[in-house]
Amino acid sequence: MPLTVAKLRTIKSTGKIERFYDEKGLYLEVTKAGGKYWRFKYAFGGKESRLTIGPWPDVSLDEAREARDEYRKSLRAGVPPSDYKNTPKADSITFKSVAEDWRANMGNIWSDSHAKTTLGRLELDVYPVLGDKALESITPHDVLPMLRSIEARGAYETAQRVLGICSMIFRYGVATKIILSDPCRDLRDALVPYTSKHFAAITRPAEVGRLLLTIDEYKGSAIVRAALVFSALTFCRPGEIRHAEWDEIDWKEKEWLLPAEKTKLRREHIVPLSRQAIEVLEGIRALTGRGRYVFPGQHNKTRPLSENGVNCALRRMGYTSDEMTAHGFRSMASTLLNEQGCWRFDVIERQLAHVEKSSVRGAYNRAEYLPERRQMMQAWADYLDELRALASGE
């Protein structure tokens, strides 16, 4: 049944992609983010394709039908609609509208922190300059001055990252047949080169031993001290440790199971717990075991430990941000485990929950190498005990 204006006014977003069909290939697509776009489905050269006409209500039902009829004429003449330029109000498909659709489609993949950071960069630097521009009208000469203004404040890494975000949005526009190419593709070499800094970490065995002794002697919060020791033993990401919950601890199997929504890669991850890690948990259980979080906030026990809790403790212990960070426990473990030569690289990488650069995403197995990882985690904890003993002169 053909669409009507009355029907269009009743269509609401349900948080998923839905299509409402009119006639002869025309339909209205409602995106996850709530955008409503007229699209035309057609076949040319034996291949099915779709073309974006424009957003509703900026492009009315009658205008969308007129565009569809023009496209059908071009098909009969042997010309693909993608080559036909007479699209009504094509300039109403703005950069911001496409960016919001792109963000909605990526929502199930990104971590909350990454989604927040990406939106912040768009709202601060990109939307004020490109947001209201028609996506198809934007050229490299529109994008580069925006990036130069970011560089002007010394934020060279941010400029590179904003360029990457914009490029992904334009490529999304190409994939959804709104534009033909990405204007960012030739701009990377135009920016000031930037080499990202790694998180500071202590990796010399003797210094690791002294660090562990300093943590043991820390006079601040017992919860923070336990989080520091647990970080060294498990070398998980700081956010994962801060948000650890008692319900995720399997005491029988001596494992910590991180649910997919809490991990950077959005995959479940198993952390085998060494005898020493279990002792840390048992020691803090009396303090926090009745609540949700293993390491709750110091002032609000219903919330996780603050993002700066561990880093602030390291500063109070005398370690600068150029010497050691909360994330540095991961680099510390990675470096020393690889230097020992006792463990396969793949086993270490799996325990670090790093991205597999050459494997198929669908083949991921949370329990892969688990017996070896279990042995490695216990050996690592024993090694830390040895370094601590050497540092104390025992």
TrEMBL record:
Residues 197-382 form the Tyr recombinase domain. Residues 93-174 form the Core-binding (CB) domain. It holds the Pfam family Arm-DNA-bind_3. InterPro entries: CB, DNA_brk_join_enz, Integrase-like_cat_sf, Integrase_catalytic, Integrase_DNA-bd_sf, Integrase_DNA_bind_dom, Integrase_recombinase_N, Phage_int_M. Keywords: DNA integration, DNA recombination, DNA-binding. It comes from the Bacteria. GO terms for molecular function: DNA binding. This is Integrase. It comes from Desulfovibrio intestinalis. The lineage of its organism: Bacteria, Pseudomonadati, Thermodesulfobacteriota, Desulfovibrionia, Desulfovibrionales.
